[in-house]
Amino acid sequence: MPTDDLPTSAGGHCCWRPVWQDGDRCVWHTECAGKSVEALTARGNPGRRLDGAILTDVDGLSEVPLSGTTLANATLSGADLRGVRLRDVDLRGATLERVDLRDSDLSGGTVQLRYADLSAARLRHADLSNVDLRFATLRNADLVRASLVGAKASGTTLTAATVISTRLAGATLRNADLSDALLRRARLANAQLRGATLSGADCYEADLSDADLQKAVLEDARLRGTDLTGSDLTDATLENADARGVDLSGATLTRTVLTRANLFDADLSGTTVYGAVFVDAKINDRTEFGFDRGSTTSLSDATLTDLDRLGWRYRIIERLSRQNALPEQARRAYRRRKAVRRRRHRKKWAVAKWTGATLSGGVMRYGEGPWRVLGVSAVVVLAGAILYPLSPGESLYVSLVSFLDPLAAARELPAWARYVAAVQSLAGVLLIALLVFVFGRRSTY
Ligand SMILES: [Zn+2]
């Protein structure tokens, strides 16, 4: 038997047990399936070293004292391990295909299942907390309501596994393959899922709050009602994901790809979306961006980087809202974006740009406010009415016609007042042009 990769803590590697029946090996190592428990226990305590044992399809293994043994590279496929206590067992590299481990106890932090094959294993309600499952295969395994709290499962294959209501809080699942797994209501708060694959996984109402999902692949994942608050999705892919009602508040979406994702009823308030891609993403009027509580830093003490990020955020909201026929929200995001730009000009001492932006914001709300243009026009007319040296009724009339034409009331005015009329008329021409522009702009939304 090859011994290179066996644990070295429990004495020598050679088998000292007497040969069984007419074979050349002991009862533990002989290659026959379905051995009886009586034959295995006939010679009393089998000792600690059971590496490479062949226990295929053995029934009632819970009667054999296996706690504290090493079963490295052993074959236990199809064995009945229901309710077995496997504390402190070293099962590294063991093959446990189809084993029935329902209600078993493998907790304690010393059970070693590294590289073990647990395909289609039944692990319902099993306690696997703190177990070392690195690079193990749990394809199609049944982990319903099992506990894997704090388990080390980096590189583990869990494709199409049933992980419903499984407790995985704080588990390490780096680069794990969870594609097409059923993760409904799974509890994965604070789990380490960096680089993990969850393509096509069903995460309905799963708890992934504060999980590390950097570079994770969630293509076509079902994320309905999934709790992703505070999670880190930097460089992750959620392409085509069904994320209806997903809670992403406070999540980091830096450079996250959300192409064609369905974000109906989703909560994206307080998210960092710098560099994120939302091409053809779907939102509705209940998709929450937390406009009013979104930015924690006020504009006045924001740094240039903050302003760039905030501008990016408003640009994304504006574009998404326009594509999804939400013009009112698009306009709000546009005005916020312009206000951020104005603050940026001020921060960089770009006086001319800042003046232009301030005028544009003040006179016409960055091209969005026809009522603002009309209001400014009224102010110009009233100011003229106060300046002209005529009776109140007459001066208001003169001011109104001068707003449209500098020569209309020229004969009745003293020389200096004609200059007022000329300036007023110039303002009139500009304001009427602006009004036409603003109405034209609004109608193209
Ligand atoms: Zn042997």
From TrEMBL:
Keywords: Membrane, Repeat, Transmembrane, Transmembrane helix. Gene3D superfamilies: E3 ubiquitin-protein ligase SopA. The chain crosses the membrane at residues 416-439. It comes from the Archaea. PANTHER family: THYLAKOID LUMENAL 17.4 KDA PROTEIN, CHLOROPLASTIC. This is Pentapeptide repeat-containing protein. It comes from Natronoglomus mannanivorans.
